[in-house]
Amino acid sequence: MQIKEVINSLNLNLLTHTGDMQMEVTGGYASDLLSNVMGQAEPGMVWVTMQGHQNVAAVASLIGLAAVIVAGGAPVEEDTLKKADANNINIAATDLPAYVVAGQLYALGITNGK
Amino acid sequence: MTEAKSVKMSYDVAGGDFDRAGEASANIKRMLQKIGIPADIVRRVAIGTYEAEMNVLIHAGGGTVNAEIFTDHTVINISDHGPGIPDIKLAMQEGWSTAPDYIRQMGFGAGMGLPNMMKCSDKFDIQSKIGEGTSITMEFNHISEDL
């Protein structure tokens, strides 16, 4: 499934403009600990988090994630979006809690990819 | 004796500068991609370097990242003149961290950085002296596990 379909299906608010919307989603990961994400998430995954600061964009870019989903209505800093757009990273936001987002991703058939 | 050809890169990491955090690792990543190093190796180098960069930024008030890319491997050295690590064995334990609260709120400081660096590199060395600083060297072979 392409990231575009995931964003549409979950009715997420896409905040960035330069990311690859055709990227195939390989799985999902949920965590607010950045080192944990770097150690466990794999390229093409969607990452569900409550963190909205700019290091989120850096981590997503280093791993090659399909998108970051900032859940629970958590604020996303302007610098985060700038950094994401500079690195062609998709960031989408939702008011849904992280748990619900993960459940909806699973219902779409996006598992943890392992 | 002829020396092996290599590409050298060097970056200063400023203490507490979260705006520029990850610049060194991102630039090294781009260079490795340009050279054509397999994607999974590039990712491991980038993650290891980023973790080290963040450590220097958070704990040491700044330092230097040096990368040397050879044909068959990459060497990353990160050194600082920070406070040093009193007990390296303890610092290497997953979950051990001395990061302040505001760093933890950003999702860092979970005590995973050093273990992550060791896991993602093929060779890992850490030297630290109290009051003098810390130096970490990571080596990455360019042999892909994806092949």
* Helix run count of chain B: 5
**How many domains would you count in the coordinates of chain A?**
1
The arrangement of helices and strands of chain A along the chain is HEEHEHEHEH
Q: What do the pLDDT scores of chain A average to?
A: 96
Q: Describe the strand arrangement of the main beta sheet of chain A, using strand numbers.
A: 1-5-4-3-2
List how many beta strands of chain B DSSP finds.
Answer: 5
Low-confidence stretches of chain B: none
| Global geometry of chain A | globular
Count of strand segments of chain A = 5
Q: What is the name of the CATH superfamily of chain B? A: Histidine kinase-like ATPase, C-terminal domain
Cα(first) to Cα(last) distance of chain B is 33 Å
Describe the structure in your own words.
The complex is a heterodimer of chains A (114) and B (147). Chain A is an alpha/beta fold and 114 residues long. Chain A contains five helices and five strands. A five-stranded mixed sheet of chain A has the order 1-5-4-3-2, with helices on both faces. In chain A, helix 3 links the parallel strand 3 and strand 4 (67-70). With 147 residues, chain B is an alpha+beta fold. Chain B has one domain (7-141): Heat Shock Protein 90, CATH 3.30.565. Chain B is 35% helix and 27% strand. Chain B has a five-stranded antiparallel sheet with strand order 1-2-3-5-4, with helices on one face. The longest helix of chain B has 22 residues, at 39-60. The model of chain B has no long low-confidence stretch (mean pLDDT 93).
